From TrEMBL:
Name this protein carries in UniProt: CubicO group peptidase (Beta-lactamase class C family)
One Pfam family it belongs to: Beta-lactamase
Domain of life: Bacteria
Domain Beta-lactamase-related intervals: 18-339
Amino acid sequence: MRPVPSPMNPPPVLAGLDEIVVSALARHRVPGCSVAIAHGGRHWTGAYGLARTDPEQPFLPQTRIPVASMTKPFTATAVLALAEAGAVDLDQPVRRYLPGFRVADEEATASATVRHLLTHLSGWLGDEPEFVTDRGDGALAAQVAAFSALPQVLPPGTTFSYCNTGLDVAGRLVEVVSGQSYESFVEDRVLTPLGMTGSTFFAERVVSQPAAAGHTREDDGAPHPVQDAWLLPRGVNPSGGLISTAGDQLRWMRWWLGELDVAGPLSPRTRAAMISDPVPVRAGLAATGLGWHLDYLPRGASRVSAVYHEGSLHGTATVCRFVPEADLAVVVLTNADDGQLVYREVGDILLAELAGIGKFDRKVSRDTGERELAPYAGSYSTPERQDTSSRVEVTVRPGTLRLKVSTVHYDQPLEMDAGRVEADEFALLDGPWRDEPLAFLREPSGELLGLRIAGRVFPYQGGTA
């Protein structure tokens, strides 16, 4: 399969972008993608390769694709719209708005706030292994009711740990406070005002429209279509159920940049508050706002805030990113698990060429001494839920750490190496999360608390024999 570009007519500095995207798709064996750019009041969209491989269908700018966790900022925006109207106080307990809500830990049930939901600080298990399959209007209520057995990983407010379940609770809060279904509220207050007519939470509404199939790499190395990329249960729509297009995501990004001449769901002041005073994740390098993540990337002698969210579903990988100080936004939507390798490569080039923004300059060691690495060896795991827990086993190899990761997201364990950057910070050297950070977390006493990988905290269970 040889991807064929749909030219974007980019500005002169990006005259080679079509070739860059096509090359990245071929190198990483991703069937296709759509790309959208906004910069300095101008904008472009384009599409490359195939949306489906069996039968073959071209990827188009208007091709629908699940954007998974890119839904989370929409949920946060819905909550902030209610807050702006005086109906929700972010610093009040969740139970003020959902009196029947509970998780397994009573103290966490009582103390978790609305802000904790939007900043991934609730501390309870973030990935529910069992979904409610109901597609009716009561699906979200039933899903959140099932969270009553969710175990606590950390006390609320301890540290960032990526939490899908927290955003689903936030979506249920939207329903109860507004009196509408979650999907209707987001459509009425966010999608429609912004002119995002190609976006929906219901796959059945777009069956006659161009739509991408997800793809995963099999043993032969080739991308193969998967059947369940569009079958996310309705009860988890707030954490990852939106279906969208590059053009619609571009309108979303332009609104965040202040370019769209529409009122939109939030005032400029509230929008700014969502990405201001964020919760640190990696000191001076990364943080989380209300529904958004932030990277502090080098630009000349200073750093700029790159605000973003990624999405990953079985067979798709997507990202939207905007840099207010550079008046720049980039959207890349791909239809393969390995698509993150494409969107990182293409996104890095666009940020560098259009705004002079660089990447993290991290010197990763592959020859750290065994004595320095040995204290990190051991078992790290989340509490059990439905007889299932996610686990990371860490062992020492010559110069690096070796990780074996077992999670509810993958049928087979993932194995990868990690090289030390500094102190308790490492970088993953291979596998699907290559170049992503691995952080070891400590108690105030200095004792090992756990590790954070793929944004999720795994508490330390003990060293290896």
